Amino acid sequence: MGDYTMTRTTRGRRAVLGSAAATAAGLALVVGAAGAGQAAPLTGAAKAAPACGAAARTTAPAGTVRTAATTTEAPAATVAAATGKAADRISYALAAEAPLGLWSSSGVTLRTPVAKGTVRLDVTTRGFDSDSLVIQRYVPTSHRWVDLNTKPSSGNHRDKGVFTFPVTAAASAAHPATVALRVQDLDRPGKLTVAASVADGHGHTYRAPARTAVVDRPTTTVGGWPRGTALVRGGAAKEFSITVRNTTKRAYPGLTAGYFAYGAAGGHALLPKDVVLQEYLPGHGWKRVAMVPDGCDPGMSAALAPVNRGPLAPGATAVYRLRLAIARTAPAADVEAGISVGTSDHSFYFQMLRFPIRTK
């Protein structure tokens, strides 16, 4: 999609990295489609140099967030149904729910002729940065989804965004023209309001009523890891769990989960051999999950084995059972560790699980 797509993707990354999730660069490796014990592939500019040490806790490397054009879920409808009334010059439709990380259907219907005009979507977000929002339109001639043009939000109005696309249509009340759109938030839950308008190229601007969608996500909790947890070198393993309940009305495809850790002390880094992570697999018992270096000597991550087959349906629950021990060879470090849960190559939840390593 050319240079513009790269610009838009970079803006989306900056918005997401501005959230709390940016504190863990290791998340980049654990939310992909890799199997158990493998490093998940990065998307986008995956070959960028990784951030190491202190930088890794504040700025994640490029590619940590899914780019707008990649998705493993079924795409939104490419032929949007006409919306609104016959008297409406422009109508706008938006799904009432837009789950985090999933594409949600949207569309514009025109009932007035437009010659080299412009459709404009004024967006207001609540709970997340408008720069983390991606809106695409379907182009029937190329059978592709392409990003809309957008203006960067200002420092004082991070909840405001403007998306536009050019349009020419011989539309009328009897023969409406509809453009299929799809919307996705890459950051956090909240609300999204979109007000659509069209400048028809003849000096007129028509507006449609604003539509609002709730941006939600599955409910994820971590059990068995209270604040203040510490691990002893060569000591007993600590068992904990990750529970994901799909509280949205949409199925979440390709559910993934991962673990990451980073630590160093006295000139010695925490290494993959020092972290003994195991996952319980029904019918197989406890299996060790290999920690994989993420490009920085002190950092590592692992993708957990899937615990559900197929998409996580609305109301369904997935539980990951884990236990963690530290080898005698590990340094007595304060470890920045945590888990992430997502779908395909996008994380919709993460939680830090920091712990110190004690000598006894």
UniProtKB/TrEMBL annotation:
InterPro entries: TAT_signal. This is Uncharacterized protein. The lineage of its organism: Bacteria, Bacillati, Actinomycetota, Actinomycetes, Kitasatosporales. Keywords: Plasmid, Signal. Residues 1-39 form the signal peptide.
